């Protein structure tokens, strides 16, 4: 292999022990992500999509197998893989500006540089007017914008998103999807995005990874080659949706081996 | 991504000053109804001869003036309010400060270090149910009759609420915030000042507030130990001398002093915890 992928997940399994019972949250997952890709992980609950994301983030260690970032094993959380949580995970005692500057400031960047970085990303996510308010004063969509800006300001090469728009209303969700795509196209980020919405997955990604529960595993991978911007109402979009929908629902959980 | 259309919840509603004054006057008025009714009942009860042992509100008010400034009765207690208040306040704040100084770091350690938790937590939990009043005889033996004993009891009274709330605050920091900090590059001990401390500040403040309240609560017991000055001492002396109006004066002064010091902590708390939806305003 000539080109090293930004992320390689190799035979990753994760087993939890819950009340004396061992559960295969994830079995033998393999996934290769090239720089700049937008990949969605989709599947019913218990299919291991969040577990896979948390292993890539370094929050969990795999029971076997490994995740490689630029060919090096992931040993723990680090700024190159920024995580956006569904419940935002903002620091409530810091203002929007301070939240966005948290990463660069913790890593000892000079004050002037931090200020400049923060200004740039506050503007990128359209929160200039709200730069000095606390998170509890923001709407859900605005909080999620802060969370996105926070990982971008910290030079994340890869953004891991765990159902980031799941708690938002439909209108806000659509707007944030558009904004996320715009940022992705502009910055060349690599995105790994967990969702349970087929439409969201097709709308956003280059590649949809379908996962299944019992044991959690990757069932199939689908390239989405629709031109952008994508129209969720177009026949082509619906054709893809039909294929994925059939794929998601046709597989009943087989008995655990 | 150029403009945000959604508007945030405004930090403070714009209310005209006149309206705000009216509102706060209304709030104060509402709060005064019950005390005034009680005062009226007290007056009527005394005037109607229901009791001979309790002085009328007027007698108490008159004595309060004498207690504060003198010039009416000119007895041993006239014009001594400030001396007693300062004596008590010194013990209250001193004992409270010492309690805070011990309990906050100890609570953080117990909350964060399993070894220290296993070492100290069972012992402290065992000591906790013992009421401060039960410590009185022992404290007199240990610290002698006098201010040191009072100081110790106040310390003890304020210690537990501060300790327990600090432990609670430190232990209930959301896991999510640690995850967020570590993926942003803030790890290990740096998380203590950047995450643990700010996140547990609301609980620590709750503990401080309860602790200060209890310090005023305990001061009367603390000053039963034979100190010459202090509001508790005044109440105990007045009881011995059957000076009920003086007992009531002492009670009122403690109530007001405790109330004011609570308001100060509350104001400080609201100022420092403006970020918290439970505290701002």
From TrEMBL, chain A:
Record keywords, A-Z: ATP-binding, Nucleotide-binding, Transport
Cross-referenced InterPro entries: AAA+_ATPase, ABC_transporter-like_ATP-bd, ABC_transporter-like_CS, ABC_transporter_ATP-bind, P-loop_NTPase
Coiled-coil regions listed: none
Gene Ontology MF annotations: ATP binding
Pfam families: ABC_tran (PF00005)
Domain ABC transporter stretches: 7-238
UniProt family annotation: Belongs to the ABC transporter superfamily.
PANTHER family assigned to the protein according to its UniProt record, in alphabetical order: ALIPHATIC SULFONATES IMPORT ATP-BINDING PROTEIN SSUB (PTHR42788:SF13), TAURINE IMPORT ATP-BINDING PROTEIN-RELATED (PTHR42788)
Protein name in the entry: ABC transporter ATP-binding protein
Species whose genome carries this gene: Plastoroseomonas hellenica
TrEMBL record, chain B:
Bilayer topology: Multi-pass membrane protein
Keywords: Cell membrane, Membrane, Transmembrane, Transmembrane helix, Transport
Domain (ABC transmembrane type-1): residue spans on this chain: 85-265
Localization per Swiss-Prot or TrEMBL: Cell membrane
Transmembrane segments: 21-45, 92-114, 126-145, 151-170, 214-234, 246-269
InterPro entries registered for this protein in UniProt: MetI-like, MetI-like_sf
Keyword Nuclease in record: no
Main location as per UniProt: membrane
Gene3D superfamilies: MetI-like (1.10.3720.10)
Family: Belongs to the binding-protein-dependent transport system permease family.
Full protein name: ABC transporter permease
Lineage: Bacteria, Pseudomonadati, Pseudomonadota, Alphaproteobacteria, Acetobacterales
